[in-house]
Design a protein that fits this description.
alpha+beta; six-stranded antiparallel beta sheet; three-stranded antiparallel beta sheet; 14 helices
Amino acid sequence: MFWIGKNQTEVISKQLADDSPQGREQTAFLTTVISEFEESEFRKYMDVAWRYYKNDNDILDKKRQVIGRDAENNAVLMESKVLTNNKLCHNFMKKLTRQKIGYMLGKPFTMSANKEDDFRAEEMFSLVKEYFGKDFFKLIKNVGRDSIVKGIGWIHVYYNEEGKLKFMRCAPEEVIPLWADSDHTELDAVIRKYTVERYHQGRKTFLKFVDYYTKEGVYHYTYNDNGSLVVDEEKGMLSPNFSVKSVGQDGKEQEIGVSWAKIPFIPFKYDPDEQSLLVRIKSLIDDYDKKTSGIADNVDDFPNSITVVKNYDGASKEEFVHNKNQYRTIFVQGDGDARAMETPLNIEEVDKHLQRLREDIYEFGQGVNTADKDIRDTSGVALRFLYADLDMDCIDWGSECEWSLMLLIWFIQQDLIARGKGDFTDVYYSILFNTDVIINETETIQNCFTSAGIISGRTIADNHPWVMNADKEMKDLLDEQGDVLDLESEYGQKTANTAEGQTVEKV
């Protein structure tokens, strides 16, 4: 931790005041960085990816166009208000995202010591688990969604008013990281720009704030009426991450500002390049939406009954195309009659193309196509093969998450030190994500049965599909065995292992 005395805080604040050269330089720096981030392709793509996650695909901008005439009687393409315009969105983005979250984060992660004889690790695990309640695992899932959809998610570590260490999700579009290295493994500072909704005199207002997190503390800014960045007068120029009370040499209690040696923001990346899942599959989703919407348009417009009208003269090429597209009617010269001309649609070829698109989406999105009929009654080996791509993607994502969680646990370790619970910063440990794959239940139970006597009962219970909590199951099993022994003692019964198909007999 980095300690800031009250006097030092005041000095820094005075040096960086808005009217000082240092203050103006920092304000200009923050304004430039924020502007560059908001105009970056990385930031803009967050909005695109979020739209697709919310099933707001580009197909919703689709227009049906026909050849028409402008004011100068020139042939131009114009939007048709007559033709059907279906806009079919397929929410592959949400399905794949939820698959990955459910697969890797559906169950709480576990921690294990790298050394069997490191007894301090178990002590640390028991203390750390106190910080990981239901709210935390819900938080992790939401941050995981951010990382998959937007390329990166963020957790902010802070102390609440009661002095408890807390974790808060920050929207990726609010956080501007300033990295200390090209690999983006260490933060030098973080700028958080966010909006707060408030009511003033019965009217809703939106106030914009900027917090600049450094190793010295947090600099607070807001925007004035002119849209310029200025010091937040309510919070002050600089504040520490948190404060502690101490008794000085004069016996008086004083408050000392404390800042961590690290920036209290934890990045959760989907991959090392911080790319959204959508980058891999957007073009495929767009083509799928386009093709299915086009088929729906053709069905609604009755393409199989285009009327051919003979003995009509004077139509230009543009008018010909316009009449065909707009009214599904063709005018030609000849003997006067009207008949229907069939325009068959090759449904089989379209279905093959859509099936191929769907397979590509799940292949390159590295997910499981649950619509595949062959997935039913699949053996365990086949299921593992089916989940291979999803498992591979989650292994890579899991390594990123493990690194992030270790950064977060570092802050927990600092809190334990501050509370006098011990220093565990030298403990070596690993984090394991308990993936939740669909299994062939009957096959798995049979494997558990045949493994009895070869591996421990604890391992069998841990892998049995009906067991939710292996520790509780083993305890219940021991309790049942104890009840049976009591019956033997009281009634002289002879019991046998019913799991091996034997029965209980009276002597």
